[in-house]
Design a protein that fits this description.
The complex is a heterodimer of chains A (296) and B (460). Chain A has 296 residues and is mainly α. Chain A has helices spanning 2-13, 15-42, 58-64, 67-98, 103-119, 121-132, 138-145, 160-185, 189-197, 202-213, 215-230, 234-239, 251-261, 265-295, and strands spanning 45-47, 52-54. Chain B has two domains: 50-177 and 345-405, D-Maltodextrin-Binding Protein, domain 2 (3-Layer(aba) Sandwich); 181-343 and 416-458, Periplasmic binding protein-like II (D-Maltodextrin-Binding Protein, domain 2), CATH 3.40.190.10. In chain B, strands 1, 2, 3, 4, 11, 12 and 13 form a seven-stranded mixed β-sheet that branches. In chain B, strands 6-9-5-10 form a four-stranded mixed β-sheet, with helices on both faces. Classes of the chains: A mainly alpha (296), B alpha/beta (460).
Chain lengths: 296, 460
């Protein structure tokens, strides 16, 4: 009874906090929770926008037999495995390079690297589409100056993953650099000075002081990059349309295709559920692996 | 003071939320959950239908094609994308005051029917839909389309040109169409001294050997001029690629039996080998799996492409860009007759409804549109009338008249647009070509894969 009274008192004390937070909760409920639950529900039906027939696990069984689904899971994981560590390392390297520069120079570099984020994925993809063009592409022109035969960047299953990775890197690294520069700015300079006095080499300082102190930023970057990789859609839609023959298709793109192009909304919902499960599993495992020691 | 401000801010936020929610609620009509209306039937927006004094309400959806603007005779009311739907609805309502037509424009920019799908999912199921036939077959597969056999008279059916109507289970009302054929930049051939290699105007057919010879003669890729283009990045315009196969004797289905594909045949394998030969000999732009019909249009406009497999829709572009366009048939093997052409059809579909009055009114609107708007709309789309009675009304250029004659001469062929699995068919056909172009499969292997994949979808 006393506990209940305490809860009541706390609620009364926090009434303004609740008042402010409730609009956010309502939006989250309406646009995240309810659609997610609805997707799970739909995944058990043969749904064609007007009729719903219960299909049990039929959509999931059909999904595992689908060539496109298997390819999209493989590609999504491949993109996550390549892009997440690569973008983390590259942005860290760039951030540590521009951090010691003066304020003005640092601002110029930060702005330059962040520019693609401002432009957005659609425009970035359109620009890269031109760069990769098999006939008029700038990239092949540059290669030809070195006597290298032109490559079919997006038309060849062997090069398409690399091409997409390149586009994603050019698009997303800017924001990661900003985060790392901010993280570096939060490290107490006294620690660096102390290490220098103690005779630590620059490599020792980086690995023993800088990197551990950047762990919260790194954890955040890895988690968000993983989630971004699982949501990869517009770049695939604009650059490759998932091809050639599913060589670059992703889960998010396959969901779109099954729903809007093929009209199989139940199957698309089942694939959406699989995406949520896979994304949660990979993100939680990575989060635990990255921040595990810190918790201990 | 600070706390009072916070309170007011919170109140304002809550009010804004409430208003937003109210706005999201929509106008209140036709918001019944689609899941609650089995059989795809749209709940009547007028209660139990058109009783005495009650208006029949229709939702008329159509794709906002960017080229359907400034429709001849209706220039003042069709200046913007999608205006033609409103103009048709207004004219129809003036003649039929007991019918109220609401217009829904499907955004054509994405190349799909996302706008319409979202509306349907929200309960706004249309009564009538105008678009490309390929867009409509998805809804056929979903069981939403009303068959119209009882609504056509024999006289009406016989007015349509051969090969346009299905003659059983009529599921759409064709408005106008255009065949996929070979569009040639004649000026490039003249500049290359190769115009004599093209088929003469009085017989627009050629053999595969003659075609290859013409492509070789115009090939000047070092100067940025490419003989032709093949594309397999998207499912869009895959009918252009299919056009190469029909003259070899390839057929997608056996007549009206849409239960199994018959594409996997020695004739199709021969056609695919021919296609691959064009690519292997360097007579097509490299990297077809990264190219779309948009690339084809851009290159044709820039006069860097001599031959485009497309609709005969380049007259306007040719006159503004200063080149001569020439339309001919796809090439055929020397031991075979010239192949038939596939017709790209714009059509109307009437959607199922529990309310017979809505179906009746939809058919009336569809026939009104097909009678009064088909010809002027076909003109802005660079297409041809599909009814004998409308041929005289159409204002065809010399080249388009030649296309009409060519269609009359070689006939038309179906690619299975009436199949519920047509979207899968297109996508699978694109992937089959991609397998072939990247060298992952031989023509026979690619065809076997296509047959297996498509038949699995057809038996679903």
């Amino acid at each position: 009874m006393q506990a209940l009274k305490k809860v009541g008192t706390n609620l009364y004390r926090q009434r303004w906090a609740w008042f402010f937070i409730i609009p956010g909760y309502i939006i989250f409920l309406l646009f995240n929770i309810i659609p997610t639950l609805r997707t799970v529900y739909t995944s058990f039906f043969d749904y064609n926008l007007t009729t719903m027939e219960f299909a049990g696990f039929g959509n999931y069984i059909k999904l595992f037999g689908s060539e496109a689904f298997r390819a999209s899971v493989g590609n999504t994981l491949l993109f996550a495995v390549i892009i997440t560590p690569l973008s983390t390392v590259v942005s860290l390297l760039i951030a540590t390079t521009i951090f010691p520069l003066g304020n003005k120079a640092q601002s110029v570099y930060r702005g330059a690297f962040f520019l693609p984020n401002v432009i957005g994925g659609v425009i970035i993809s359109a620009i890269w589409l031109w760069i990769f063009h098999p006939v008029y592409g700038v990239l092949n022109y540059v290669l030809s100056l070195f006597g290298i035969q032109p490559l079919l960047w997006l038309a060849d299953a062997k090069t398409v993953i690399l091409s997409v990775v390149l586009v994603i890197m050019s698009w997303t690294c800017g924001s990661l650099i900003i985060l790392y520069v901010a993280g570096l700015g939060n490290i107490d300079p006294c620690l660096m000075e102390a290490a220098k006095i103690d005779g630590a080499s620059p490599a020792q300082t980086f690995f023993r002081i800088t990197l551990p102190l950047l762990k919260p930023v790194t954890t955040f970057i890895i988690t968000t990059q993983l989630i971004n990789c699982f949501q990869l859609w517009e770049v695939i839609y604009l650059l490759t349309d998932g091809g050639p023959v599913n060589a670059s298709t992703t889960l998010a793109f396959d969901i779109y295709k099954k729903a809007f192009l093929l009209g199989d909304y139940g199957l698309a919902a089942a694939e959406g559920v699989m995406l949520i499960v896979l994304c949660a599993l990979v993100s939680l495992t990575t989060l635990r692996a990255v921040s595990g020691k810190e918790e201990k | 003071m600070k706390k009072t401000c916070q309170k007011w801010l919170a109140l304002a936020l809550c009010l804004a939320m409430a208003l937003t929610m109210a706005a999201c609620g929509g106008s209140g009509n036709a918001t019944k959950s689609p899941g609650d209306t089995p059989g795809g039937a749209k709940a009547s927006a007028t209660g139990e239908g058109a009783g005495h004094g009650e208006k029949v309400k229709l939702l008329f959806a159509g794709t906002g094609f960017s080229n359907i603007i400034n429709v001849p005779g209706h220039e003042d009311t069709t200046q913007n994308v999608g205006d033609y739907l409103k103009a048709i609805a207004a004219e129809f309502m003036a003649e039929n005051p007991h019918i109220e037509v609401e217009v829904l424009v499907n955004n054509a920019a994405s190349g799909t029917t996302e706008t319409l799908d979202v509306e349907i999912a929200s309960g706004n199921v249309p009564n009538l839909f105008f678009s490309k036939e390929a867009d409509q077959s998805k809804y056929m597969g979903m069981g939403m389309i009303q068959t119209l056999d009882n609504y056509f008279t024999d006289q009406e059916i016989s007015d349509y040109i051969g090969g346009i109507m299905t003659n059983q289970n009529e599921w759409r009302i064709p408005m106008f169409s255009a065949p996929k054929l070979i569009c040639i930049n004649k000026t490039l051939f003249e500049n290359a001294g190769a115009a004599h290699l093209l088929p003469p105007p009085d017989d627009r057919n050629w053999t595969t050997e003659e075609y290859m010879e013409a492509l070789r003669a115009v090939n000047n890729s070092s100067a940025g001029i490419f003989p032709t283009i093949l594309f397999a990045k998207t499912a869009s315009a895959q009918e252009s690629m299919m056009g190469y196969l029909w003259p070899f004797g390839a057929r997608m289905f056996n007549g009206s039996d849409l239960s199994r594909t018959t594409l996997n045949s020695p004739e199709t394998a021969q056609g695919l080998t021919f296609l691959k030969g064009i690519l292997d000999e360097g007579l097509a732009v490299s990297g077809p799996t990264a190219l779309t019909d948009d690339d084809m249009w851009a290159m044709f406009e820039n006069q860097t492409l001599a031959v485009a497999p497309e609709l005969p829709a380049f007259d306007g572009m040719a006159s503004s860009a200063g080149f001569e366009v020439y339309y001919v048939n796809y090439p055929h093997p020397a031991d075979k007759e010239p192949g038939p052409l596939w017709q790209f059809t714009y059509a109307l579909t009437v959607w199922k409804s529990d309310n017979p009055a809505e179906v009746e009114a939809s058919v009336a609107l569809a026939k009104f549109m097909a009678d009064k708007w088909a010809v002027p709309m076909s003109e802005v789309c660079g297409a041809l009338p599909v009814r004998e009675s409308q041929k005289a009304e159409a204002n065809l250029t010399g080249e388009l008249q030649a296309v009409v004659d060519l269609v009359g001469e070689v006939g038309t062929v179906g690619s299975g647009t009436a199949s519920p699995a047509y979207p899968v068919l297109r996508d699978t056909f694109k992937d089959m070509n991609a397998f072939l172009f990247i060298g992952d499969k031989t023509p026979e292997e690619a065809l076997a894969w296509f047959e297996k994949t498509l038949n699995a979808a057809l038996t679903k």
